[in-house]
Amino acid sequence: MSGTTKNPWKGPPMPRGVKMRVNTNGVAVTDAMAAVIGSRPAVDSFEVITRGVVDSTVLPTSSVQSLRLLEELQDGSLFGVGLFRSTVSIFINEGVWNAMPTADRLTIEKVSDEHLVRLAGENLDAAETEVRATLEPSGIEVFEMPPRGDRDAGG
Question: pTM of the entire structure?
Answer without folding.
Answer: 0.62
